[in-house]
Request: fold
Amino acid sequence: MVYSMSENKQKNSFFSVIKDFPAAVWSSVFRHNLPHTDLGRSQTSFTNFFLHIHPVKVHKHTLKPWFTMGLGLISLFLFLILTVTGVLLMFYYVPSTTQAYDRMLDLRGSVAFGVFLRNMHRWSAHGMVAAVFLHMCRVFFTGSYKKPREFNWVIGVLLFLVTLFLSFTGYLLPWDQLAFWAITVGTAIAGYAPVVGDQMRFILLGDTTVGQEALLRFYVLHVAVLPLVAAGLIAIHFWRIRKDGGMSRPADADVIETNGAAPVETEAIPAAAPVMAMAAAGNGGIDFIEKRRYGVQGLVRGPFTKVGNVPDNSVYSYPNLLLAELFVFILTVLGVLVISFFFNAPLEEAVNVLHPPNPAKAPWYFLGLQEMVSYSAFWGGVGVPGIEVLILLLVPYIDRGQKGVGKWFAKERLLANTLFMTFVVVNIVLIIIGTFFRGQNWEFVSPF
Amino acid sequence: MSDKHNAHDSEGNSEPISRRKVLAWLTSMGILGSGIVTLFSNLVFIKPRATYGQPSRFAIGTPNEFPPGTRIALGAQKVAVVREGNKMAAISITCTHLGCIVGVAETGFACPCHGSRFDQDGNVTGGPAPKPLPWFELSLAPNGQLEVDKSKQITAGKWFTV
Reply:
């Protein structure tokens, strides 16, 4: 007794406080060391703010590189690169019709890394449009929008639209020829919308013609409104992935291969039954009894909460998922750096309100739209795109079959995949026509 | 007691509405209403009351500055001034398709953005433009200056004689 008391006194001595100071600070920030046990690996998801988005364990199928191709992650990382480079560029940009273009030129001469940052920002934006679209194709061709992931598909379509608006509002800011004529044409398309068209155009431009007010408005949309909307939707998108039972996977992904013995089927199949789907479905899930208390284990089911020696096909997120994400991150950053090093972002001549460039072409991802509006402004700019978006939003509620989930180009989904492939090919063909087959006065020319 | 009794009667066979339900309903409606008012006032806020752009009525110069045979575009004002003999007209050079500025040539107007084509009087001869280029009212002010009023469209072919 006496001995231990003296030890306690020693611990609180002045010198021991000094000596233990670094460790005390460290342990107040990081609650445990790098994990070496399964318990520690589980704890990473609980104790680390930046890792708590991960599940403790992740299905092996999710980590197959060719299933997701990391396209969603690439989109996220590009969004992060865009946020960082965008904030940096804001330090030197003035949203003024008389100054904006000069500021672009200043990036070349009087700002360290100015051109490089602008290149990174522009090429990441192009990359993000492509990555988000390819991500959508991946989700469709693997049938991953099926129940219970219907609503997350809807969020994804909205994110695709926000991405397009972000890039549209972004390439106006240099106030070069492309910017001026893109805003002119874009807001004119908005003016063709039924009933509210003219009002919408006036509110977007803040004036009857394109000028200072329009530049300021698109600037605010680009640097504040749309990024906040995107960040909010991304948060919901990610949260829903977890709550909807993780990545989609084929029904046979839960069968454990055992040496020699018959395969063990772990649980009834659509069984990674997510919380919300069960709450809605009733049968198949848990029969909720009102006025009974439920612990977390009573609500969450599926392979992720298995305790003990139950065989399952999942591995710990730390380090498996984390390393996969790190790999995609490095690849994305590397790609952006290399492209930004070798190619400069386009900057056209200063605005000339009398002479649109001839032909006046939008960036590649809007050339399909531009090709369509060259036939009819209403149908090409409002009607057909509106119908396309509406169908995309409704896809999971129209196509409700539960077969072929989690497999690329599943035979059971031949019709749906063929229709979507047609949609993709038609849009790509329109973009190719707009890019290579349109010359002066938007006349048909042969590139050969 | 009698109040409660009457309320029950007026509801017929349905369950009496409890005070809690009425309050919940009133609260929900209050919050919903405030939300709608907030949204509407924000829309009113971002719709400008004054604009800083071009005035719709402006002077372009004396008739002598436009000799017969003139076909020129005024960039800032976005009109083409045409003079044939002593007849003059102010024709819009904003494409009726999607608002690009059309090029002015001897044979008419052509849009570089989506390929709309117009004849000398602004009638559509090809491309996606849905309407002909509008003509604006032209007048001679007392100080001898020609004035264009872009808020007043006139029928095509109605020339102003100087």
